[in-house]
């Protein structure tokens, strides 16, 4: 069977196969490609020359035209003030991807800081506890000198006992001891200190010193431990003094107030100073601050007693500082004690601004006992700092105008006003001005 391949070429009979004329076809293809390349090259040269010509004309026109007639370039688009959330997070992700090591360091730093802050806050709440021995026994004692029946003294004693202190409250009568026993607290104990007879007081202080210095055992078989005196807290009940005009106050009233408030506080501090020096303890003196700062009329006794105790606290602090010890003066404002009789009565009279919670005072007392460098003056309670500033820097005439004082006749001025409350509960509040 003979097969013919007709490709528009010459035919050869050898092996009955048709072979194309390849030489002629290739020659025709080469000529066409040459013509096409030549035409394209000429077009590119013409287009390039035309473009260069227009650029030259534009440059000449730009140089020829005056500057005022030149068209201004279009203003750039205003930058976006705020990135969209998607764009912002995309940039953050790209930056993190480019700075992997730095991102890991920042993340570790922030995470560690957050953990440290959390731990510090947790320990700050938990660390307001008295130190104990290895077997859990209480080792820190506090002497509290104030009226045992006063709500403020009782509240401070109960809080210190809850925080792990052994609280010794100075008592002078059997009624005071009975009041402490009614509290049913094993570590709130009476401390009988006879301030009238110095010889007896010296013997009582020696026994107390021996008690603190000797070894104690919490239970049979427990390891021995010693007690330490953390501090002495003086809480004179100042506002229970007589209220009245200076012309009507008798010398006996002044003598009673100065002996019962000022001299009593100074005497207790005198007997406690040897123990304070030996055990490196703190001395805390708490006094109401509002009346003593404003010095209103008919409160001469209270103002005098407060000023005297404040001057004593400043002198005591200066003396103890020479030995590396600390004495802190707490100036108290309006402090509310839950359940006090005076608070219930004042709540019925007015619905004014409430006072500061007594918890702030408890925390401040603990911090003053355990801080490495406590402040000499502490303002605790609403109005304490502002009234101290007013009494120190504002003229007395302006203070009288703020209090609403008016001039009265001579016969009315000699009249003694009736005290609003003669109970000791007034030591924790201040009158509204």
TrEMBL record:
What sections of the protein cross the membrane? 101-119
Q: Which InterPro entries match?
A: DUF1776_fun, NAD(P)-bd_dom_sf
On the tree of life, the source organism's domain of life is Eukaryota
What keywords sit in the KW lines?
Membrane, Transmembrane, Transmembrane helix
The UniProt annotation puts the region (Disordered) at 410-433
Q: What is this protein called?
A: DUF1776-domain-containing protein
Origin organism is Aureobasidium subglaciale (strain EXF-2481)
């Amino acid at each position: 069977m003979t097969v013919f391949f007709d490709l528009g070429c010459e035919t050869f009979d050898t092996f009955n196969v048709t072979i194309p004329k390849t030489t002629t076809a290739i020659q025709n293809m080469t000529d066409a490609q040459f013509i096409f390349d030549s035409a394209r090259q000429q077009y590119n040269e013409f287009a390039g020359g035309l473009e260069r010509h227009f650029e030259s004309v534009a440059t000449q026109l730009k140089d020829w035209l005056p500057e005022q007639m030149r068209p201004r370039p279009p203003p750039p688009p205003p930058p976006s003030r705020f990135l969209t959330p998607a764009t912002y997070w995309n940039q953050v992700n790209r930056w993190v991807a480019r700075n992997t090591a730095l991102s890991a360091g920042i993340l570790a730093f922030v995470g560690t800081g957050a953990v440290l802050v959390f731990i510090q806050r947790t320990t700050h709440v938990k660390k307001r506890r008295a130190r104990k021995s290895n077997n859990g026994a209480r080792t820190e004692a506090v002497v509290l000198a104030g009226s045992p029946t006063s709500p403020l003294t009782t509240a401070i004693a109960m809080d210190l006992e809850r925080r792990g202190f052994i609280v010794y409250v100075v008592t002078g009568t059997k009624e005071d001891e009975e009041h402490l026993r009614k509290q049913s607290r094993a570590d709130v104990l009476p401390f009988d200190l006879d301030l009238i007879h110095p010889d007896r007081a010296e013997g009582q202080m020696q026994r107390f010193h021996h008690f603190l210095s000797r070894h104690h055992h919490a239970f049979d078989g427990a390891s021995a431990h010693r007690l330490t005196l953390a501090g002495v807290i003086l809480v004179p009940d100042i506002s229970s003094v007589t209220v009245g005009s200076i012309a009507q106050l008798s010398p006996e009233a002044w003598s009673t107030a100065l002996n019962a408030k000022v001299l009593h506080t100074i005497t207790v501090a005198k007997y406690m100073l040897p123990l304070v020096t030996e055990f490196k303890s703190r001395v805390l003196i708490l006094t109401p601050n509002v009346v003593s700062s404003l010095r209103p009329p008919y409160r001469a006794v209270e103002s005098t007693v407060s000023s005297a105790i404040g001057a004593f606290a400043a002198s005591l602090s200066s003396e103890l500082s020479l030995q590396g010890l600390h004495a802190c003066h707490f100036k108290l404002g309006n402090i509310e004690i839950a359940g006090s009789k005076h608070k219930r009565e004042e709540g019925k009279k007015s619905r004014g601004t409430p006072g500061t919670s007594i918890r702030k005072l408890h925390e401040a007392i603990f911090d003053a006992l355990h801080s490495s460098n406590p402040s000499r003056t502490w303002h605790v309670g609403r109005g304490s700092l502002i009234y101290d500033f007013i009494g120190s820097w504002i003229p007395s005439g302006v203070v009288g105008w703020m209090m609403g004082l008016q001039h009265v006749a001579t016969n009315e001025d000699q009249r003694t006003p009736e005290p609003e409350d003669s109970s000791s509960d007034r030591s924790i509040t201040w009158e509204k001005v």
